[in-house]
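Postdoc handover notes: sequence design on the structure in folder B. Input tokens:
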């Protein structure tokens, strides 16, 4: 049996990347992390990847913007960077750059995204903060997170797994963020296990 190959895209702390690497190490996910890509140089996730001995690449958008190159060109070149690794799954784990069809068309049904909100809620950045504010205004009673197949629309697409995250009246934003991340780490590992089992 061929071991599935993962390419993981990050932009920040990489705690979800870490959850995947640990699940691989502990035999909960049978896969090889072939490449970690970050669009931010100072993303701590790059340090986590290097500590785990996983190949990394830094691929920023800024040179494209500075040269008046399009987002589609960046997306197509990013796909070219990743393609030689023949990923069974491309995981957007805190990747904060919207990917167009110029990327997605190269990996049909293989790109999944983690988002810290329930389907249809708080798409885009600062989702936890916006859910916390909505709770304070009495608009929601809980929030959640989801893993979904990636489509050109931001933080939308067929849902693979989702989980509710309670908000308590005594919560600070940091409390909610901590609870969210703990839930995300489990959800992402479960979603990856589910997809690889179907592959
Ligand atoms: C996670 O909360 C993830 O859901 C979110 O970025 C964070 C990354 O944390 N992604 C989005 O908001 C995508 N729209 P991490 O770097 O510690 O894994």
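Designed sequence:
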């Amino acid at each position: 049996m061929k071991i599935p190959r993962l390419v993981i895209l990050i932009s920040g702390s990489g705690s979800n990347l870490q959850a995947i690497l640990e699940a691989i190490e502990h035999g909960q996910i049978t896969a090889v992390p072939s490449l970690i890509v970050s669009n931010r140089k100072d993303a701590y996730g790059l340090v986590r990847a290097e500590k785990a001995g996983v190949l990394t690449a830094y691929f920023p958008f800024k040179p494209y913007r500075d040269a008046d190159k399009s987002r589609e060109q960046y997306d197509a070149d990013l796909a070219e960077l990743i393609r030689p690794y023949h990923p069974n799954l491309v995981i957007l784990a805190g990747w904060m750059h919207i990917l167009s069809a110029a990327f997605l068309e190269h990996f049909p049904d293989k790109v999944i995204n983690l988002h810290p909100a329930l389907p249809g809620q708080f798409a885009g950045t600062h989702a936890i903060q916006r859910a916390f504010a909505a709770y304070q205004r009495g608009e929601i009673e809980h929030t959640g997170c989801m893993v979904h197949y990636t489509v050109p629309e931001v933080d939308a697409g067929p849902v693979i797994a989702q989980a509710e995250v309670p908000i308590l009246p005594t919560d600070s934003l940091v409390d909610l963020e901590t609870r969210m991340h703990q839930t995300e780490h489990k959800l992402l590992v479960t979603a990856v296990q589910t997809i690889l089992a179907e592959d």
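Context for whoever picks this up: Residues 173-198 form the longest helix (26 residues). Don't rerun without checking with the PI first.
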